[in-house]
## 1
Amino acid sequence: MIEEQNILETINMIKLYNLDIRTVTLALSLRDCISEDCDKVCENIYNKIKKYAKNLVVYADELADEYSIPIINKRISVTPISLIGESCKKNDYIKIAKTLDAAAKDVGVNFVGGFSALVEKGMTKGDKLLIESIPQALAQTQRVCSSVNVASSKAGINMDAVLKMAKIIKEAANLTKNEDCIGAAKLVVFCNVPDDNPFMAGAFCGMGEPEAALNVGVSGPGVVRAAVLSLDGNADMSELSNKIKQTAYKITSAGELIGRKLSKRLNIPFGVIDLSLAPTPAVGDSVAGIFQAMGLEHAGAHGTTAALAMLNDAVKKGGIMASSHVGGLSGAFIPVSEDAGMIEAANKKYLNINKLEAMTSVCSVGLDMIAIPGDTPVSTIAGMIADEMAIGMINKKTTAVRVIPAIGKNAGERLFFGGLLGQAPVMPINNLSAMKFVERGGRIPAPIHSMNN
């Protein structure tokens, strides 16, 4: 018999503490869409997305109503498009991006991810063409998201790709400067990118994935914060960790229930559940708020990195007990623009990029949704990317950079994206030059622990 207390607790999680299913993401292989004719590729892609995703939004909305758990985003991720477009005699990656956008619009999803390339050891002709098309593709579409993996613990860091991506980020921001540089907000640079991540902008369908799968991303910073606040103020770190684990177990169970129900209705396999605590700009739904509940005056105080490390570990331990199919990133996100507490900390100068970089050594991703001055040199952006890639490479974890050069704006001003992307205070940066370093090119070798076969 289900206990009344458990029912009331779940209702409170949803109604009072912003528990939701952040995303259900249909991962779709496009490998059978390859053709020498780009028009045929586009036709195949459109038809396949329509075939598999035609009921995604309808069924997700039905389940949200049946279980009274909000499902915020419905998304699609596809095979890295550099691999699909490379087969064409006449490559037109912009046309493919527009096809993805049209198909996403027609099936009603929020975003489609996979305008991507994997170049940690070098670039093929197709990779290079796709990367060079990213700024135009993001400027000319609404729903397309892009990612490029430039490093891994096995391959090292492709510094040629790092510098190239810094230029691409700056160009993407320039082309969308009248939309608060949103092009750069839909572009992420990775180290150790996972093949089954349901979260944008980094989602794509990896080469080892099935024909189709449903991946789920849960949320719940508000629920975790409430659980921490429910403890006695003198609770020690072990008690705090156990409470977070118990809460993560409940959040994960709800997410997997919805994911499996939806995958059954769509008649596709359930893939993974990503445990990442994904914040929103809503008050009370903040990872930074969890730090305050733990006892820190605010995010950015000394101790923030330790608090984040414990939070990340406890979320994973609790979630792994609730599901045998945990994947994606899993942990805690610290996107500045998408977290009300992080925005406040940045505005009050409690947080700077150096502190955020330190926190990325223990969180799910990296420097995420951070606005920087529009006149930031490309070489400085490349240095930021290289630093994050090094953290991921050495620690055998995923790290990423999603920075937005705020064209025409300086530190202290703001970018406004709306919705889950929120608003980003433009943060000051270190003006010391990295130019001679990043322009050396080549590949930073993989660390010694890469030789573990």
## 2
Amino acid sequence: MKVVSKQRNSRMCVICGLDNPSGVRAPFYNMADGSVMSRFRFRFEHQSYPGRVHGGIITAMLDEMGLRGLWAKTLDENQFGVTISLESHFRKPVLYDCDLLARGVLISNTSRFFAVEATVMDLFGHILADGTLKYMKLDATQISAGVAVHEQMPYLIEDGVKAIDYRV
């Protein structure tokens, strides 16, 4: 599927923070169909049982796809919100040190709320985890008083990715 543009990364977020030594450091792409996608790897530091990724980190990736799903559909990184509910399902073990895909699709959007369906899958399209996430829209200053959001999300590093092979 064609990549339309790339989204910013933050400094310290556990999923997208490029300065976080324990973070996933995942890149995010706005796709031609209005979804957001990421090709990433969980690492040894993200494990629960040996060989498997901790469910909380998997859920954090699903949650990250939420706001980014809104941004991908609207192409507006100035909209923010907080998670108000999250339902996640773990379908198969998620292994670390292997390439994975995540995808987020906006399923509803009102003036105060939005919802996203998110998945983590392997490169063969097998769904490993998925979830439905609901958010309340808030101004960034209401979420993190005194913090300039785009100072915390300064990285827009183009990497030449033009398409992500996505199998349903």
